[in-house]
Amino acid sequence: MFEKVKEVCPNVHEKIRAISADLNQNDFAISKEDLQELLSNTNVIFHCAATVRFDDHLRHAVQLNVTATQQLLLMASQMPKLEAFIHISTAYSNCNLKHIDEVIYPCPVEPKKIIDSMEWLDDAIIDEITPKLIGDQPNTYTYTKALGEVVVQQEGGDLNIAIVRPSIMGATWQEPFPGWVDNINGPSGLIIAAGKGFLRSVRATPMAVADLIPADTVVNLTLAVGWYTAVHRPKSTLVYHCTSGNLNPCNWGKMGFQVLATFEKIPFERAFRRPNADFTTNNISTHYWNAVSHRAPAIIYDFYLRLTGRKPRMTKLMNRLLRTLSMLEYFINRSWEWSTHNTEMLMSELSPEDQRVFNFDIRQLNWLEYIENYVLGVKKYLLKEDMAGIPEAKQHLKRLRNIHYLFNTALFLIVWRLLIARSQVARNVWFFIVSFCYKFLSYFRASSTLKV
Ligand SMILES: CCCCCCCCCCCCCCCCCCCCCCCCCCCC(=O)SCCNC(=O)CCNC(=O)[C@H](O)C(C)(C)COP(=O)(O)OP(=O)(O)OC[C@H]1O[C@@H](n2cnc3c(N)ncnc32)[C@H](O)[C@@H]1OP(=O)(O)O
Ligand SMILES: NC(=O)C1=CN([C@@H]2O[C@H](COP(=O)(O)OP(=O)(O)OC[C@H]3O[C@@H](n4cnc5c(N)ncnc54)[C@H](OP(=O)(O)O)[C@@H]3O)[C@@H](O)[C@H]2O)C=CC1
């Protein structure tokens, strides 16, 4: 990841100093010396730290995404040299709306009241009231990110603030090289599950917009926002949508198809089954495919592991995957429209050279190429698989295909045999097929004898 920057700037280490901090602690548990240095020397703050788990307990999510933001704003107000405070939110902070503008929307309950209540409510009560508090938000993550924005608006004081709202972050597009990715958030985890053959069906709407945004595009836009906010000092807090849907849309159908097509060329090693996922769109088919394609193979495989004296693990893994899928479903069955006036305005404010260096013009992205590089990046940087292993991986998939055919043939014969034993209709069909084949073979043999 950092090879290129080390080449261009060999003394890069001298320019960076990491400071230990914990958002769960008062003053973030930053040491006195570090705090002093931060207070007196900081020019720009990029506030990215957060919990991004969808299933986080509300108390923890509020602490990290709301209370910590409030504390950081307080700290920022004591920094005389501060030029800009850039808060990273998410495009889904208002995902209860269909059309989202670059404005901060009010929350039904004031963030301050939520912060206060977290101090005296116990966990059991918080669990009980969480669904009522989050209302039409899908999880505690989007809910607390929305609260975080309101805190920024209400407690920003005289600070020069901007908010960046990225959609679903994916692997890098160009910088420092295509396809770099280091976590399993968003689509990356599902790409692994599909490529390894665990994921066979996803409840998704193929025509819904897949609002992915490459990580380097988000970084470039965020840096440009830092510059604009510090230099132009806009009168109000500007919100910037870092999204792809309205400028260069791609849908989940196209994305899924390209992911699968890439597995043909670049398969993952030691797959459980051949990658062959599909989208389902209703409850009944989702339950059916979950039972047939996810749970049943896991149970059979665990039975095989037990028989061979090993510890069963597939059912547990599959349950985890199905839980993850159920959490992501909300986002892959809907489309949103994000306006991008501020982002487009910012692009026009950059010089041609800066537009090239800090490129965030998503219209230039070729989705097919991007997705191919993404899958390749998942293989290299997440799974740490070597490209030299591709021929063996292909061989393995061929073996899995043969096992699949053999298994299906055996299953068909068993079911058929049982049917014949129990049903007169099935017996009649069977005799018809056998006599038809016999007649066909006799005719074929007779006609070839005549020719000779
Ligand atoms: C017509 C054509 C048909 C073709 C059809 C083809 C169909 C094919 C499909 C093919 C492939 C799919 C491609 C497209 C599919 C679409 C999917 C895209 C989904 C994207 C939706 C994202 C919406 C995001 C909206 C909001 C945007 C934001 O603001 S982002 C913040 C993003 N946050 C997340 O993404 C976090 C979500 N995750 C969680 O909340 C939790 O992980 C979980 C609740 C989902 C699961 O929790 P669980 O406790 O079960 O597991 P966990 O402990 O989290 O982890 C399990 C193991 O993984 C390790 N781990 C965890 N995190 C990381 C990490 N960041 N990096 C590395 N490793 C990680 C963790 O340590 C665990 O390991 P072990 O301890 O060893 O078990
Ligand atoms: N991923 C996505 O698709 C999107 C992400 N975002 C936003 O981007 C930002 C980064 O997210 P992403 O990179 O995906 O998530 P990660 O979980 O990878 O990053 C979260 C960061 O927060 C830090 N952090 C978490 N808990 C604490 C804590 N208690 N004290 C100090 N630091 C902490 C982590 O530090 P450490 O590494 O040391 O654990 C990490 O650097 C978040 O604000 C998120 O809301 C917005 C839209 C989309």
Automatic annotation (TrEMBL):
Keywords: Lipid biosynthesis, Lipid metabolism, Membrane, NADP, Oxidoreductase, Peroxisome, Transmembrane, Transmembrane helix
Catalytic class of the enzyme: oxidoreductase
Membrane disposition: Single-pass membrane protein
Subcellular location: Peroxisome membrane
Cellular component, GO annotation: peroxisomal membrane
Residues annotated as transmembrane: 403-420, 429-446
KW Secreted (keyword) present: no
Domain Fatty acyl-CoA reductase C-terminal: 294-385
Pfam families noted in UniProt: NAD_binding_4, Sterile
Statement: the UniProt record of this protein carries the keyword Transmembrane: yes
InterPro entries: FAR (IPR026055), FAR_C (IPR033640), FAR_NAD-bd (IPR013120), NAD(P)-bd_dom_sf (IPR036291)
Sequence ranges assigned to domain Thioester reductase (TE) in this UniProt record: 3-221
GO terms, biological process: long-chain fatty-acyl-CoA metabolic process; wax biosynthetic process
GO MF: alcohol-forming long-chain fatty acyl-CoA reductase activity; alcohol-forming very long-chain fatty acyl-CoA reductase activity
Cited Gene3D superfamilies: NAD(P)-binding Rossmann-like Domain
UniProt EC number: 1.2.1.84
Task of the protein: Catalyzes the reduction of fatty acyl-CoA to fatty alcohols.
Family named by the database record: Belongs to the fatty acyl-CoA reductase family.
Protein name: Fatty acyl-CoA reductase
Organism name: Muntiacus muntjak
Source species taxonomy: Eukaryota, Metazoa, Chordata, Craniata, Vertebrata
